[in-house]
Amino acid sequence: MTETMQTSLDEPSRALSGQGIARAAGLVTIGFIISSILGIVREQIIAALFGNGRLVDSYFAAARPPETIFAIVAGGALVSSFIPTFVSYLAKHDESEAWRMASGVVNLVTLALIGICTMMIILAEPIVHYALAPEFDHEAVILTASLMRIMMLTPIIFGLSGLVMGMLNANQRFLLPSIAPALYNIGRIIGALVLARFWGIYGLAWGMVLGAVLHLGVQLPGLLKLHPIYRPVLTLRDPGVREVIRLIGPRVLGLSIVQLNFWVEIILASGMVAGSISALNRAFTLLFVLIGVIGQSIGIAVFPTFARQVAAEDQSGLKETLSQVVRALLFLAIPATVGLVLLRLPIVRVIFEHGQFTFEDSQAVAWALLFYGMGLVFHALLEVVTRAFYALHDTRTPVYVGGGTMILNIVFSLILREIIGVPGSLVRGPFAGLALANTLATMIEVLTLLWLLRRRVGGIDLRVLGSGILRTGAACIGMAAVLWFGQPLFDALGLYAGLAAAILVGGVIFWGLAWMLGSEDARLFTSVALNRVRLKRSES
Description:
Elements: H1 3-10, H2 18-50, H3 54-91, H4 95-122, H5 124-132, H6 138-151, H7 154-170, H8 175-199, H9 201-217, H10 220-225, H11 239-269, H12 276-311, H13 315-342, H14 344-352, H15 359-373, H16 376-391, H17 396-416, H18 431-456, H19 462-485, H20 487-492, H21 495-516, H22 520-539
Helix pairs in contact: 2-8, 2-12, 3-4, 3-6, 3-7, 3-11, 3-12, 4-7, 4-11, 5-6, 6-9, 7-9, 8-9, 11-17, 11-18, 12-13, 12-15, 12-16, 13-15, 13-16, 13-19, 14-15, 15-18, 16-18, 17-18, 19-21
């Protein structure tokens, strides 16, 4: 990375330009891609070693409570509430008070997480039996609770790691935070390859703990470069701490609603054929790879810019940035959705079908992925739209909307599990109805939030946005036609070569058509990529 580019990414005193956001998003995207590849390798190893039965169902179910706390703390509520408050101090060049506030938040969060996780460890068995997987037999409940107790160490570590990530992102430093998820997956791979050889399924749980330690550790050198000033303060009187708490309350509720949807899926799937929970989890893992690469990377990169524009009362700048980001995100998410749906079975087979994982298991995951995959666009948009509300210091609106869609998700789940799929089947199981319910609820949620956000920021340029969507949609139709009619040719190449060829050809067709149709986003991303190549050449 050149000195000029590093300056543009690390400058904490101003918002990034469109090119700057693209570069920052590119950096974060690279981190997500690396992490995603490692995550896929991790899941390949677990699938090969343990297959897709009730043992792995217990592992995935046990991971849900700590992952819920992780998503709320390190991945959502804390960071989205902390960054705008921390940035407001930096914008005033009041670094001493910024670090005092950060110290107070660190101390409060650490104590709170220790208390919460201790309680969850003590009550692990009744939580599993009554709230998480009520249809599990006694043996599965005991195993799930034991695994959950080990995994409950991770939220405490992730709480600290999430705050460090927020401090770095607030200072426009994205490199180490983007690497952290990769280190987390490396820890989990070590758990699967090494620890599981000695401790079986428990090795996977200890691998999660190791991954959390690495997630925090890799970011500490970046934090030290900011010359933080830690203070052993524990007070609610600090105005910055109170502001974080004020913002975090509704956000915690909102993310709890999101996580409750996943709990509902496990509860309902626990009574279905063995392997249903694993099929849903693995399908959503594949979906989450694209959500991370497209939605989260852009959302993380643009969030500090949103916050600075709000702090500077630059509503026109916020409106312009939001319009550009939404259009660019759709340019990436729409073709990714089409490709994921059309190529779902070979993707699942290439990734998971090894060792104990059978073709039937692949069909089950692909069946769930069909219905999850249709929601990729909406999940990706949600990552950006909600951050725009948080930058506006409005954490309540996403909660209200999320609460309503949570109820819809439960209603949809109860209805669609009776309509979609065949009871007792794994290949075409009713668990796919739960995936479709998630997609429909997310679609309603993001469309509602976009409508409300458009009113808050004074409108989004619908003409430019609509034009971009039409060009992207037309290019996607061409890509889909080539993938559909070219399927016999791709199949003739074999599973691995055929999938690689389909992805390559589909990507080239889409990008070429988008360019020919005059897509500004195709030109923007191409320009950023070419500039990176030129910079690399000039360095050498």
